[in-house]
Amino acid sequence: xxxxxxxxxxxxxxxxxxxxxxxxxxNGMASAVGAKAITMRQAVFIAGILDFVGAVFIxxxxxxxxxxxIVDPSILTDPRTVSLGLLAALISASxxxxxxxxxxxxxxxxxxxxxxxxxxxxxxxxxxxxxxxKVAWITLSWIVSPLFSIALSMGMFRFIRNRIxxxxxxxxxxxxxxPFFVGxxxxxVVISVLLRTPLASxxxxxxxxxxxxxxxxxxxxxxLGQARDRENHLQAR
Length: 237
What we know:
It is built from ten helices and no strands.
């Protein structure tokens, strides 16, 4: 029975990963494809690599939250019940994401799996097995995230409009600011990988070390951009 559950879980995990690629990859790539910065094929290739790297290096603590912070594992003592419940939650969330993708709805897989885990807990042990305090924090993050994104998007677009779009020479202004945006992107990526993640724990990385490395990596595009500007200035003379 355990081997059957393991095989079914492996297949359900592949099915869920396929649905995540079909639905969630559009969240990060739709803007770039819509702006014609990359093609659809390039978007699929980039998303596949980055999703895999993110899951391997910094995804385990999210999995721990789903596995331990919604349903209290100390109350459900039957391993078979827990295995079958987790399998049922995975399949249910996968089916919902698939139906949403089929209807062209950009749903969140996190919402789906958290709801599926709550449903499993309610059937297996009742409301007492649900860690409602942690569920409330997860739900609060769903509310804060779009508001935070709205504020960041407004500030970023206002900055681009004032510094680039309103200039007489927009192309030159874009070239001038491109190292800043590239450096900012590198900083966010590196700090998200090295700051309080499983990879950082394995490397023994402290917060200050992660910050210094991220700043060093982010500074490289700025240095290269300044060198390019000097080269273009000399050629223009």
